[in-house]
Amino acid sequence: MEVTETIMTKTENTASMGALLLDAGKISASDAERIIALQKQEGMHFGNAAKALGLINDDDIQKALSYQFDYPFLGVSEEHFSRELVAAYQPFSRQVEALRAVRGQLMLRWFIDVHKTLALVSPGRGEGRSNMAANLAIVFSQLGERTLLIDADLRHSRQHSLFKLEGGYGLSDVLADRADLTVVSRIPAFRDLSILPSGTVPPNPVELISRGLKGCLQQLQAQFDVILIDTPSVGQGIDAQIIASLCGGALLVARQHKTRLNDLQLLKESLQETGSQCIGVVLTDF
Fold it and tell me: Which domains, from first to last, does the chain contain?
């Protein structure tokens, strides 16, 4: 914490640590007076003084710092989303460092010039594709990119459950002209993150995607910097290949000790045949 607090003094902040802790209900006005007294006496930072008095913990300090540095994440006591969203709840973990590394590679190799959309594709179900899409969307939004996550798995969607969105209209309804793009949901906990859920389960997912997704993406590209698309597994149909071809690029997701190398190779070849570029492969183990 000492390193983080030292960095904080170099940044012009709109709200002090004390004000943020007060607003969050972590300390009272009388607590603040005790903290300030200890702070002056010992020459400590406000957060360290509050912690020394047993009034707050490291999570409280990190949460306040996240607001000061415009790097939103959630505390362990906040039950907004599924705990599978490690980028929301464990931003300093090994897994999230790996996600940031993937984000960095994508910023250098894909999200430049005209590229704004990327499909996440996997050979089969249970390989971590939806989890990867959701967590990548969060780390892109933490970077300050206007990020949209589209759940284009119209067969077995997961994003609405990961983000605990109420059931309702979504992508399938937009493609069927039953709704418009106002169904895109902003995620208040992350300033730059929005989600277009899958919507009503349709009887004709391939036909809907084939005839309507291209125009939908063209509209959305004017509003967002990064658009990540969660797709059905390739084993369920040709939806993923169609989506990837419309995006122009795909990130393959494989699971350690589960995905077969031959299946990945076949997937890569099928994507290339439809004109989609394989940006890389992410191997998940969490």
Answer: 2-68 (no CATH), 86-284 (3.40.50.300)
